[in-house]
Structures are given as C-alpha cells and as structure tokens.
Amino acid sequence: MAETIAQRIQNDIDTNPVMLYMKGSALFPQCGFSARVVQILNHTGVPFQTANVLEDAELRQGIKDFTNWPTVPQLYVKGEFVGGCDIVTEMFQTGELEKLFEEKGIVSASA
Amino acid sequence: MDRIGRAIRAHLSPSLIEIEDDSGRHAGHSGMRGAAAGGETHFNVLVVSTAFDGLARVQRSRLVHDLLAPEFASGLHALSLTLRTPAEQARIAGA
C-alpha cells in the first residue's frame, strides 16, 4: 500500500530528531525565511535533516495540513512542532532554542 | 492589508498593532505569482494583546492564522508575526 503524505511526514519527524521542512536545501535555500532557519540551525551546530517542499507539490500542501500551519519553513524537534521562522528566530534570540535542544538531548555536532 | 487589521482588531482588541506590507521586497519571487491585484502577499505584523496571555508561541500564531484563514486562501503568502502580551511589550519597550 502506498504511504500517505501524512505517514511519510510522521515517519520523517519520528526518525529525524531535528527535521526542517523548507523551500530549497540547506545548501541552497530558496526563500529568505527558510534561509534564516538554516542559518540559525547551523549556528547552534545541531545535526538536522531537511525536506524541500518545492520539489514535491504533495509535500508542500501536505506539511501545511499535517501541522495545521499555513506557511513554510516548519521546524520539528523530536516529533514536536516548534514553529516557523518567526518563532525559531525569537527562541534563538532568547536562548530558548538551545535550551530546547539540550532538554531533548540533541547534541551539537561540533561539541 | 486593511482586512488583516480589521480581523485582528475585531477579535483580539490589541493595545498595539503595526502592519507593514513587505511584498515589494519579494517581487518576482514565486510566491507572488497569481497574487491578487495589488500583490499584497507578504506582511510583517506586530500585535500586542491580552488575548495572548498564558498562550505559548505556537498557540498565539495559530490564533492569528485562524483569523486570517480567508486571507491565506486568497493569496496571502507570508506573514511574519510578532505577538506579545502587554507585559512582554512593556518589558521590551522599557529595556
């Protein structure tokens, strides 16, 4: 049986401790908001996986429906939705993002 | 842009609201294709309201997204939200 888009997303966020749905790739983001989240994640040094919604129309709509969130990027940590660019940026600025990674046992690759 | 302000004012009774049309900075980008006349698709919005008291960030944003669901359906593409309670705003403004 074909995997539904929701199953695929659930599997992604279960398998990858830090999973970012974005436009473009970590190396070549194709949207300023996605680029900013990648920059923040790179700065924190945690390993993360990305999925490019621009390469997959089903995923582009599917992730919005799955999260009930109208925009991309979307960051998941240990299967939980953290937020989009605004929330991730704010959490980074206040130190909450790194605290969240610590609490969830996600260790910076450079540490 | 007016519709965004109206929906937020009607439902959240904000003590402060600022809306900035940021669409110009995104001209030519794929999100602008098929945009309604006027091409208003990217906004930065600051809302200070007691409606956010006790709500986590994601919940605050969901509240605003729900109010603006019709705008998302009709071409609103990106919405940058800064959502604060009056107490948080006072702390930030006073800092």
TrEMBL record, chain A:
Binding site for [2Fe-2S] cluster: 31
Pfam families: Glutaredoxin
Keyword Iron-sulfur: yes
Segments forming domain Glutaredoxin: 18-82
Keyword Iron: yes
Keyword terms, alphabetized: 2Fe-2S, Iron, Iron-sulfur, Metal-binding, Redox-active center
Gene Ontology molecular function: any one: 2 iron, 2 sulfur cluster binding
CDD domains recorded: GRX_PICOT_like (cd03028)
SUPFAM superfamilies: Thioredoxin-like
Family: Belongs to the glutaredoxin family. Monothiol subfamily.
Name by which UniProt lists this protein: Glutaredoxin
